[in-house]
Amino acid sequence: QQQVKQSPQSLIVQKGGISIINCAYENTAFDYFPWYQQFPGKGPALLIAIRPDVSEKKEGRFTISFNKSAKQFSLHIMDSQPGDSATYFCAACGSTGFQKLVFGTGTRLLVSP
Amino acid sequence: DAGVIQSPRHEVTEMGQEVTLRCKPISGHNSLFWYRQTMMRGLELLIYFNNNVPIDDSGMPEDRFSAKMPNASFSTLKIQPSEPRDSAVYFCASSRHNSGNTIYFGEGSWLTVV
């Protein structure tokens, strides 16, 4: 019940295209859903996050779509650029007790020029 | 502000040796996390501390692993004795304790046990 399932494992998108990464969770107590971006040789860094009181959050070219009833959320990268090539992790946690993020398995995105 | 600082960045050691990884969290953060990242298992939470107290160490793989946080600005993760299967990137991260607060990761300690 603590798992966050992420797909696809890897993704190749042409420059200018839309990258879509999906995640699903089981634990209905989760109420915070961040996405982390990791470049080779670096630690993961927060990209964008959403709470279940909204169905969508947009920051620049990055959008999270959230479907509470389906317990699914996704990251959309519009106008994908080669500089977006990185590994993306979805994550989730609840608000009771101490914060403990559960991470998805990661998606390696390659944006071809 | 300085981010989470980890040392060493790279460590190559022989099987059986003791390894100590160090972490300085962001000043003012009261939660500290140790993660391990491998290709096979992804990002695994090993242990986390709140106000220097270990809260959940259920992710620590076995007794060879231990972690301490003697004060708010320093933590160590020790592996003794090390084994080749411990080869991974170990990340330290910190946050202000509150659900929804951003966890900030260090750049990792790349450990190779030969």
Note poorly predicted spans of chain B.
Answer: none
The gross shape of chain A turns out to be globular
Poorly predicted regions of chain A: none
Estimated radius of gyration of chain B: 13 Å
Query: Please, how many helices of chain B?
Result: 0
- How many individual helices of chain A? 0
- Please tell me what the overall shape of chain B is: globular
Helix content bin of chain B: under 10%
Quaternary organization: heterodimer
Taken in chain order, the helices and strands of chain A follow as EEEEEEEEEEE
Largest sheet of chain B: 7 strands, mixed
Largest interface: A-B, 24 and 24 residues
Q: Please summarize the sheet with the most strands of chain A.
A: 6 strands, mixed
What distance separates the N and C termini of chain A? Answer: 39 Å
How would you classify the helix and strand content of chain B by structural class?
Answer: mainly beta
